[in-house]
Each structure stands twice: as structure tokens, then as C-alpha cells.
Amino acid sequence: MRIEIDEWASQGREVHRAAKLLDKGGVLAIPTDSGYALACDLHSKKATERIYALKQSPRSHPLSIIFADLDHIGGYTGYVSTLAWRTMKRLAPGPFVFVLQAGREVPKNLQKKRKEVGIRIPAADIPRAIALDLGRPLATTSLRMDDEDGEETWVVDPVEIERRWGHQLDAVVDGGLGIANPTTVVDLRNEPFEILREGQGDVTQL
Predict the structure, then answer these.
(1) Beta-bridge mates of residue 132
(2) By CB count within 10 A, which of 55, 72, 146, 158 is most buried?
(3) Is the pTM of this model over 0.90?
(4) Helix (H) and strand (E) counts in the chain
(5) 84 contacts 188 by C-beta, under 8 angstroms
(6) What is the mean pLDDT of residues 40-63?
């Protein structure tokens, strides 16, 4: 099933339809500012288990958490320094994953031995609109596949996603073609901040 939403997430009925599927424990493919991602309700243990099974990822591979707004991260993070907060306020929404201490509201099944959490407030409107309608953050992981040369690439075409994985998903949220370029991952737990992966985000702003 495909749910078509324009890039400005202006179709409120379709956004609500996607959020309702997540509320029922569904797993969706959604557009982000770096290709498409698998997404579910962060607090649905069954759905997060489905994501790991679908992607065939080890449990040691962390899921990122998408929030509708930076002000919603609250109990999902631990201590955040003043400089880290100001940095996030300057860069979010944007193509960044911020690594912070995990807070008490991060489900235990996602933490394992990890004490950190990767949070995202994407520049893309659709994932933020879905999280806002759901009323809870989204657990996500990028959707990738091997190309003809065996190289792993970001999946950017919702039609291709529906063809390959549609039977395993509750829906594919079609927001048009995505961008095959990852986010920038930056660890904000200690100063100076550490860039763990350089992607779309402008690291000169750090």
C-alpha cells in the first residue's frame, strides 16, 4: 500500500492515516532528508523487532529517533550541555543525527548496553508531521540495498521500495524521490564535538 503525501506534508488526512498505522504497531517506509527509512512507533517493542528483522540488522546496530521538534526530546536524552543545545537549535531541523546520552524514556529494548541515543529533527516535513500526529517519536533506520556492483546505496524511489518490500510493510509513504546522501552524525556528549560521519550537514557550522 502506498500513501502519497507531498513534500510539504500538506495532506493532513494522509499524514493522519500514516500515523494511525504506526499507532497500531505498523512499520512504514517514509521519506527523510537522506533517502527513505523504515519507521515505527518508538514505544512499540513488536514494531521495532520487525524493523530489525526486515533490515536483517544485528541488535548492536542502533536505531535513530525522529522528533517533530527539538523541544520534544525531553526525557529521551540525559545531560545536554548549553553548547550542545545551542548547536542543535542552530542546526535543527536539518540533515543531522545528534548523539547524546540516552534518557529514561528511551525503551530499554533499544538501549541494550548502549548509553547513547541518536536523535533527528529532519529538514523534511513529512516525518516530522507524522511524529507530531502520532504524538510520539519514531524509531527509524535508513533503507539501503546493494547496487549492481555490490555497493550499498540509499534507497530513494518509493515505487522501488513498494516493489521490493511492500509485502512486508504496512505502507510506503510516497513523498517523491529522495536524496541518496546520508546525514551528518555528530557526537555532542563531550567537547570538542566529534564528527562520526560527514554527510549532507554543513560541518563548518560545528
Answers:
(1) none
(2) 158
(3) yes
(4) 6, 12
(5) yes
(6) 87
The per-residue pLDDT of the chain, averaged, comes to 90
How far apart (Å, rounded) are the C-alpha atoms in residues 70 and 160? Answer: 32
* Contact (Cβ atoms closer than 8 angstroms) between residue 153 and residue 159: no
φ, ψ of residue 97 in degrees (nearest 5):
-115, 125
Cell triple for residue 123? 529538514
What domain count does the chain have?
Answer: 1
Helices (H), 92-196: 108-111, 125-134, 158-165
- Alpha carbon of 205 to those of 96, 182, 186, 202: distances in Å? 12, 17, 12, 6
The answer to whether the CB of 187 falls within 8 A of the CB of 17 is no
pLDDT in tens, 118-148: 999 999 999 999 999 999 999 999 988 766 6
Cα gap 146→152, rounded to integer Å:
4
- What's the Rg (C-alpha) of the chain? 16
Domain that holds residue 152: 2-205
pLDDT-derived band at 8, boundaries 50, 70, 90:
confident
As a whole number of angstroms, the distance between CA 199 and CA 125 comes to 19
Q: What percent of the chain has pLDDT over 90?
A: 67
Do 200 and 182 form a contact (C-beta atoms < 8 A)? yes
Query: Over 70: is that where the pLDDT of 38 sits?
Result: yes
57-to-17, 74, 113, 141, 152 alpha-carbon distances in Å? 28, 28, 16, 10, 14
3-state secondary structure of 29: strand
CATH number of the domain where residue 131 is located: 3.90.870.10
